[in-house]
């Protein structure tokens, strides 16, 4: 009984009479999430994702706009009426209860019959590989074990409209994170529930979600698949925020349909589309698509960071830093060198937005 | 950058141990840290990183062994009498002080002149992106800003030693990336020993400097970071220093071939010289890729268990003969879960370990 979720013309301000743009914690946005999808809200702290999460769950009433579940307006409905399951950053469990009773708790709470409770608990415990610990007290479990219970409690009820995850893996060790990441993905594939995952961590968002909503300063800067976000950032923020290191963003001019950076012409995918309407012009190219060459942009090699699988090389031209990735076994020149940007991966941005 | 003689070997743990009751928290450990060096303690939770740092700082006393600093035996000298700073994962600030006063507090205690305090506070605030918040109180800041305030307080005084215990763990991904870049810059040229504990291999690699891999209360290996990464002494060190996890399998080496069950792979690189027999091989995830890296690379096939995407890399967890292996490659490659992935193993970089987990050959 999952639902399509529509957030329509939402806007939210924490101040009494919002006037300027800065007064809006959430600028006007509309999102459609289809039943059964895996979605992520990704952005830095303060981007508005938590406000949005609280609006969906009913903890905050938006200043403007409607929230629709399957076309039904729930803007004024209480959190209980919305029927949402939530998993938080820190495990919310009862230490004195057994693992079994923790999983059963949300079901018993809603008066689900004993037989169905047993069935659901077994099913969820099996999916999360908690079936051998069902009789143990939750207090004795490790951090990831406890968070698994939290996940299990979110999944136990079959009657929820949506399951929302708020930074659920923050407290988990890196070598266990991937296990839980894969578990979550698998759970989505098995249950086909609508899930919304809120995080600042690109790996978690991109691994989990089919569609990622990237937010910055209260607005959506791009909605797309992981490939869209990597290959075609719609905004320089997306290029910078997604990818490690992020996209190089270099100031430029455009003359005769060609981008000019530091007085040097640079071929790009879209400079010809620029309409000459002014604005702040920048070139964006990911470090993955910059390589050393015989000719091209002259640079000074400043710093080489060996991160094992590749080297991150920091070069400069006219005081601007250009980062590039060099594979493990390839030589790196010292001092003065030339670099090239892959033409089809180099894009022009105007006032932050991709020129189309 | 380094001094000479005793100054170069500024800090020394001599056969220290730490037992609490019947439990051994730190097994016998000897370690020499150079003046001005950046040292990462890398290991999973409960490997002993925090215990070791507490001994280094003088917060805890070793059960046996000695601690030497700049030619003096400082064993048992408490933290108050040592010029050290510590930063923890969970930070504490003075709630009634502004950010500025929070950062300035250790300098006021030390009795520095006002202009000097001001200069230092502003420098460190700039580094930690706190300049616009200097007048605010901690409760008016985000969690990340509060943590940065606490880091700033530890960095502002000229400590002989700065110990940072997973200081970035609770910060936003991108901010963490920026601070990883900035921290070594901040310490560069200062005559202070930095010890940084982390569970993340990537952090150790980004900092460069030296790394100690820790496991179960022991330092398993210590040296220059890139050396430790490329030449792990044993399987435990290799495992600690690999994220995603290093792929392993028990194999038979026979002549030019490595046999993993039914699978036959060619022997490559330095491993060609080792005698035939049973080994454990270790292959780092980025040496298994969807495209063929070189002529000797061998094709393998496995069922996709999970595909993980970071912003610019893909990791595929796949099942090979009942074991889960991981491939990591640049770019975003979607893999259908349950499908068969064809991947290539770069045999030139394969690490070989004997049955006691000591590395024997291979791997450049």
Write up what this structure looks like.
- The complex is a heterodimer of chains A (356) and B (364).
- Chain A is of the alpha+beta class and 356 residues long.
- Chain A has 2 domains: 5-236, 3-Layer(aba) Sandwich (Rossmann fold); 245-354, OB fold (Dihydrolipoamide Acetyltransferase, E2P), CATH 2.40.50.
- Chain A contains 9 helices and 22 strands.
- Chain A has a 6-stranded mixed β-sheet with strand order 6-7-8-3-9-10, sandwiched between helices. A 5-stranded antiparallel β-sheet of chain A has the order 16-20-17-18-19, with no helix packed on it. A 4-stranded antiparallel β-sheet of chain A has the order 2-1-4-5, covered by helices on one side.
- In chain A, helix 3 (99-109) packs across helix 4 (114-127) and helix 3 (99-109) runs parallel beside helix 5.
- The longest helix of chain A is centred in the middle third of the chain and has 18 residues, at 174-191.
- Chain B folds into 2 domains: 5-234, Rossmann fold, CATH 3.40.50; 247-362, Nucleic acid-binding proteins (OB fold (Dihydrolipoamide Acetyltransferase, E2P), Beta Barrel), CATH 2.40.50.140.
- Chain B has a 6-stranded mixed β-sheet, with helices on both faces. A 6-stranded antiparallel β-sheet of chain B has the order 13-12-11-14-20-21, with no helix packed on it. Chain B has a 5-stranded antiparallel β-sheet with strand order 15-19-16-17-18, with no helix packed on it.
- In chain B, strand 16 (298-309) and strand 17 form a beta hairpin.
- In chain B, helix 4 packs across helix 5 (143-156).
- Chain B is globular and about 70 Å long.
- The relative contact order of chain B is 0.11.
- Mean pLDDT of chain B is 90; it is low at 1-7.
- The chains are: A alpha+beta (356), B alpha+beta (364).
- At the A-B interface, helix 6, helix 7 and helix 8 of A face helix 6, helix 7, helix 8, strand 16 and strand 17 of B.
